Amino acid sequence: MDPYLETPAIAPAPDSGHVHAWRLHLSPPDATLPALHDLLSPEERVKAARFRFDHDRHRYIVAHAALRLVLAGYLHCKPADVLLQPGALGKPLLAGPGRVGSLSFNLSHSGDWGLLGVGQQEHIGVDIEQYRDIPDLQEVAATVLSEAELSVLHTRPAQERAACFLRLWTRKEAVVKATGAGIGTALDAIEIDPADPPLADVFTVTAGLPDLPPLFGRSFAWDADYFGAIVCENAPPQLAWYEYPAR
Ligand SMILES: CC(C)(COP(=O)(O)OP(=O)(O)OC[C@H]1O[C@@H](n2cnc3c(N)ncnc32)[C@H](O)[C@@H]1OP(=O)(O)O)[C@@H](O)C(=O)NCCC(=O)NCCS
């Protein structure tokens, strides 16, 4: 069977300290795309049809088929029967009778890869970004980074600043995806300790999110080309890594 169409074999669902981190490969053979498309919900098919470029549409189809195949493995149901609905702030959440305990998830995609975090925590947020030059880096950084993060960025040589920014940015975006509020949040008010991401892969949100439980995260890089972060409440997540499709 085509590995892109298989429900991955999954160890027991994550316990409260763990997040299952799925590295999703989003470039299947073209011939597999129609079968992946068949796994999507009617709403996802409408959204897929709206993309202007084939490339973006194909990535969306594979990411959502992968999301359904993986979640179906945890829920012991068919991919098409995984019921997703937006929460109060628009964050997609698992719903319906098939769901197991408090299983939650969050998805991100960039370039050829996706990242899916699955755990028992209420607030899970993930972000992945492919390395790229950022022409208006100073301007963007000034609007989204805290003072402490900005001073870290400014200590870096010019050729390292885009990578440093993406490390800082993925941590922050994973935080606001955990809360569900997204990039409408006052990002520069969110303080993350330590401010310098290469110094530690574990970080803590220390300010900027009143009325929420403390959030913690872990950041990482894939092959120097992709930067990512995973955030949840209570404690820094212990990550167990999985691959889609299975190798
Ligand atoms: C959610 C958001 C951070 C996504 O950022 P992005 O870099 O474009 O995309 P990512 O690949 O990291 O994540 C996209 C996935 O996040 C998930 N997502 C969507 N809304 C979300 C939310 N409110 N919280 C957490 N996750 C969300 C979806 O699974 C989405 O995948 P899909 O587009 O294939 O359905 C951004 O779109 C956002 O802030 N949206 C909510 C608020 C908003 O729309 N504000 C607009 C005015 S500021």
Describe the protein's architecture and organization:
- The chain is an alpha+beta fold and 247 residues long.
- The model has no long low-confidence stretch (mean pLDDT 92).
- The radius of gyration is 18 Å and the shape is globular.
- Helix 2 packs antiparallel against helix 3.
- Strands 6-10-9-8-7 form a five-stranded antiparallel sheet, with helices on one face.
- It folds into two domains: 117 residues, 4'-phosphopantetheinyl transferase domain (Ribosomal Protein L22, Chain A, Alpha-Beta Complex), CATH 3.90.470; 88 residues, no CATH class.
- The chain has six helices and eleven strands.
- 29% of the residues lie in helices and 28% in strands.
- Strand 8 and strand 9 form a beta hairpin.
- The site of coenzyme A has 17 residues, from helix 3, strand 4 and helix 6.
- The site of coenzyme A (COA) has 17 residues, from helix 3, strand 4 and helix 6.
